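Z., the sequence and structure:
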Amino acid sequence: MPALETRKFGRKAPVGTVEPYASAAGKRYRVRYRKPDHSQTTKRGFTTKKEAELFLASVELGKAPGRSSIRRTPGSPSPLWARPGSSHRRT
């Protein structure tokens, strides 16, 4: 079952698909999805369907509105508004 993305009026549209394929090493899974620039791409080589579906879900979350594309690592400084004791409101 393809992952779903909410569209206008609450309808759901597929974000991507998970398809099995045969390889010399046995059955593998391929994920086809659209990138934010609307071009189609694939990622293959997943050994389980669950692994492929989890990857597709992470792609869907990455495209969610309001999600920052900035990757933070542990130990990197947090923005001022996220620091305890700081206030970004005017008084």
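Residues 4-64 form one domain. Residues 72 and 78 are 9 Å apart (CA to CA).

Let me know what you think.
H.
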